[in-house]
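As a warm-up, study this chain.
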Amino acid sequence: MRGLDSLVAPVKLSEWIDPVLHQNLIAEQTDAIRLCTCPDGWAERFGVDILISYKNDAALNRLQTELCLWALNVDFHFRRVFARFLPKRNAEREAPRLVLGDPGTNLQSTAMERTLRYGIDFGAGYSAGLFIDQRENRHFVRELAPRSLLNCFAYTCSFSVAAATVGAATVSIDLSKKSLARGRENFGLNSLPTEGHRFIADDVLDVLPRLARKEERFDVIILDPPTFSRSHRGKAFQIEQHFEKLLMAALEVAARDGKILLSTNCSKLGERALEVMARYCLKATRRAGTFHRAAPLPDFPSGVAASTVWLTLR
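Now compare it with the structure written out below.
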């Protein structure tokens, strides 16, 4: 036993999640969890599967080894391990590859977040289907229980699902029809009908003016755009250039006392920069508002998750 203890002990000194915190998250029926964050990568749990994101082979090897030791500590039996390289350019992103487990199993799976179920697909592209660092923001939406929610850059519609579970009518916009199809599947995973919910495969900046002309208004608006994207017609969205324009358009369809989530993984746009931009947009549209931030994520080190600011209009 002394030999085993000598192997397990170093895990306590690494960046891996505390076993008690891990158990607490499982107890609240959440198994989509950031397990480890280090300078050269991280490891995440999605149900019974693991996704390791790494910047170099040394980081991948270390994270794999530490995963096995950590799992032994907490008595967690994972099914498979997938790995994805973190390139410097988005154009070089590739889908995760299986590095441990049965290659004959289905690449699709599910993960839970506070009782809600979300589809995971390790073969669909670079992202598996759920951004863990938006957990508290999705929970905040459920607490708000809005009558209506507009989900821009909706991806697989996790915010829409969260809102629909508390009775909101939702509109989900994304360029990708495949992502929206997965969003519909997420509704089904939670026994939610899609009637009364709209899924629009189009450019957000084209859709928002149309909604404004129809005088549609939304209690909650989600703005969590990618750093860069390009529409089927070749029009580019670059977050540093276009986030302000996006927020101005969103303000046109925001209800009087509405709330807008501003969120980004762009390292050049921190929370302070988002708030400064929002204050400028409020002044330009002659509106007023206050700001707050969601609760910190217990499984993410400070400054690692997406920058997030909630704007409440007055």
